[in-house]
Design brief:
Layout lengths: L2 E5 L2 H18 L14 H24 L5 H4 L1 E5 L3 H20 L4 H4 L14 H20 L7
Helix pairs in contact: 1-2, 1-4, 1-6, 2-4, 4-6
């Protein structure tokens, strides 16, 4: 099975994890994207929403689990073919939440520019912007080095 090990600077990543954990806390009770259902059946919609939220929360827990006590010892995270789909979904959900909560006022061309300078963002939004960019980089590494959704 393919695996990618990423070595990170613990001191640089720790503050980003604080933002990511706040976003994860927000997502415990809400979906990253509002669900739209084809039916007006309240019971069906509630059940489906709960299932979507359970999946989202499972994905986010999987991502946060990469940053356990072992990470804070050696600074490494491992992404495998088994967890890459879940991690992609978690990164996407967290990026959406970070954008909604902290980056709404930042122009989209800056938020989505991989070469954007941190100084282009208001000081209050710099840490969330860095967390957003960090999650984007994790997604790019997964897409470049692993085969999500069994496309090997």
């Amino acid at each position: 099975m393919k695996q990618v090990e990423i070595r990170l600077n613990i001191g640089a990543v720790a503050p980003l994890l604080d933002v990511i954990k706040q976003a994860a806390d927000d997502l415990r009770t809400t979906l990253a994207i509002r669900a739209r259902f084809p039916e007006e059946d309240a019971d069906f919609n509630e059940t489906w929403t709960q299932e979507l939220m359970a999946g989202q929360n499972s994905d986010v827990r999987e991502l946060l689990g990469l940053f356990d006590s072992e990470f804070f010892t050696d600074g490494a995270i491992a992404i495998t073919g088994e967890n890459c789909d879940s991690l992609l979904r978690a990164c996407a959900a967290l990026r959406l939440r970070i954008h909604e909560r902290w980056l709404r006022e930042v122009p989209v061309d800056i938020v989505e520019d991989p070469d954007a300078e941190i100084t282009a963002v208001a000081e209050v939004a710099r840490l969330p912007f860095a967390a957003y960019t960090f999650l984007d980089q994790i997604q790019k590494i997964i897409l470049e080095h692993l085969s999500p959704a069994g496309t090997e």
